[in-house]
């Protein structure tokens, strides 16, 4: 009964805490709310008129929504790069950032599920994915596996930080025997969510662009580059706009993770390009369309030729120790690396897989403004969720949110 009372007061205190803040905080939350409202309006148009208002067709049936879904699965998985050294390897330098990383994973997973709902046309068809009610087709369907691992990873990333924060809210230390097993499971689960997503594409035999043995490992490498890069940018903002202290060595260690992952990702990219273009076959047409255009169609050229130079520039700059330890350079590199991987792992991966079609027809895809605003609305929702989670976590960790047992009991008995 006492535990339930304490939890109820933590929820109440957290809701009160996130509604108060500086002028900058309120401007940020209002901005996100406006973007979400515009996105909701555009989504209502999609619900009313159907997916015909998007740029997707029966030729290119996955577009901006699934591109963002695929990328955000990697961002969510990247939390493991902070969880493992903190909880498993006992590296205290990561301890300040791990709850922020797990909050980012929760926000990313919420966005993943929202993009899936948007791509399916509406929430009314989600019953098809419910085991025992819909056509779940488990274990034969890779999509069914994807649903399981994503929801399971979301559950893990909510329960472990919630337990730790709840103990700290009560002024107690979290018991390692409770959260360490869950942390180890989350490490394995993080790898699983990205590999299963990669297998979802690799298993489509009619799409040779995705039939690549390196797709799974590249998913992991790009995730462990883009995800921690975003975490560094978030930590930089937290250091600037809050009292929460993030040590320089914490950011430097995460930067090393980003650097190694970016180098591996670039090596794998070069290997893929060699495979596609050194001895090309008719299965290389998707790659030719992406990098050079095909039959006069070249909608993706500006995207990919923006992504590759940014990827190379960021990786080269991060490789040099002095440049990486210059935080202004580091933040710039993390930003352009994040953008580069978002392009390459989004449009650069999903759309070319449908071009050319089974009969050789080239039908290009361009997202409509409805899609763009729905996408921005979902990103704003993710940022909104993360901001609330981060503010609550920081408040508890700084001791501003604490359960005052005697005061609570007196107020309830009065």
Short summary:
This protein has helices spanning 2-18, 23-49, 64-77, 80-88, 95-119, 142-169, 176-202, 215-241, 248-277, 285-292, 301-319, 321-324, 327-345, 347-350, 369-397, 405-413. It has 414 residues and is an all-alpha fold.
- Under CATH, the homologous superfamily reads Formate dehydrogenase/DMSO reductase domain
Specify the structural class.
Answer: mainly alpha
Roughly what fraction of the amino acids lie in strands?
Answer: under 5%
Radius of gyration, rounded? 22 Å
Shape: globular
Low-confidence parts: none
The run of helices and strands is HHHHHHHHHHHHHHHH
Report the biggest beta sheet as strand number plus sense, adding barrel if it closes: none
CATH class category label: Mainly Alpha
Helix percentage: over 70%
Q: Count helical runs.
A: 16
Task: Give the CA-CA distance, first to last residue.
Answer: 19 Å
* Structural domain count: 1
The averaged pLDDT comes out at 87
The strand count comes to 0
CATH architecture: Up-down Bundle
CATH fold node name: Formate dehydrogenase/DMSO reductase fold
């Amino acid at each position: 009964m006492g535990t339930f009372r304490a939890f109820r007061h933590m929820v109440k205190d957290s809701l009160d805490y996130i509604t108060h803040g500086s002028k900058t905080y309120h401007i940020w939350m209002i901005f996100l709310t406006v973007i979400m409202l515009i996105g909701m309006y555009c989504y209502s148009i999609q619900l009313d008129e159907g997916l015909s208002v998007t740029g997707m067709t029966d030729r290119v049936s996955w577009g901006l929504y699934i591109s963002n879904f695929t990328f955000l699965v990697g961002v969510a998985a990247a939390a493991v790069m902070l969880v493992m050294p903190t909880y498993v390897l006992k590296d205290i330098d990561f301890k300040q950032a791990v709850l922020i990383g797990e909050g980012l994973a929760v926000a990313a997973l919420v966005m993943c599920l929202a993009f899936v709902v948007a791509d399916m046309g509406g929430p009314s068809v989600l019953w098809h994915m419910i085991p025992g009610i819909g056509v779940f087709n488990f274990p034969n369907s890779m999509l069914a596996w994807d649903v399981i691992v994503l929801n399971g990873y979301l559950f893990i990333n909510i329960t472990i930080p919630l337990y730790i924060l709840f103990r700290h809210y009560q002024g107690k230390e979290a018991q390692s025997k409770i959260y360490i097993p869950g942390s180890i499971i989350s490490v394995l689960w993080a790898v699983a969510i990205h590999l299963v997503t990669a297998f979802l594409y690799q298993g489509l035999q009619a799409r040779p662009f995705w039939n690549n043995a390196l797709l799974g490992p590249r998913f992991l490498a790009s995730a462990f580059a883009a995800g921690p890069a975003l975490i560094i940018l978030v930590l930089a903002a937290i250091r600037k706009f809050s009292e929460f202290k993030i040590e320089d060595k914490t950011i430097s260690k995460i930067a090393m993770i980003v650097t190694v992952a970016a180098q591996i990702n670039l090596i794998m990219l070069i290997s893929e390009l060699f495979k596609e273009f050194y001895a090309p076959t008719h299965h290389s047409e998707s790659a030719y369309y992406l990098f050079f255009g095909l039959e006069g169609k070249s909608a993706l050229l500006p995207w990919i030729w923006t992504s590759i130079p940014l990827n190379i520039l960021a990786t080269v700059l991060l490789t040099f120790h002095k440049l990486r330890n210059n935080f202004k350079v580091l933040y710039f590199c993390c930003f352009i690396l994040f953008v580069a991987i978002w392009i390459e792992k989004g449009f650069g991966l999903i759309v070319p897989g449908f071009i050319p079609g089974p009969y050789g027809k080239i039908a290009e895809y361009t997202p409509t403004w409805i899609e763009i605003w729905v996408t921005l609305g979902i990103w704003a929702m993710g940022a909104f969720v993360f901001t609330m989670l981060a503010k609550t976590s920081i408040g508890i960790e700084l001791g501003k949110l604490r359960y005052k047992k005697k005061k609570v009991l007196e107020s309830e008995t009065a």
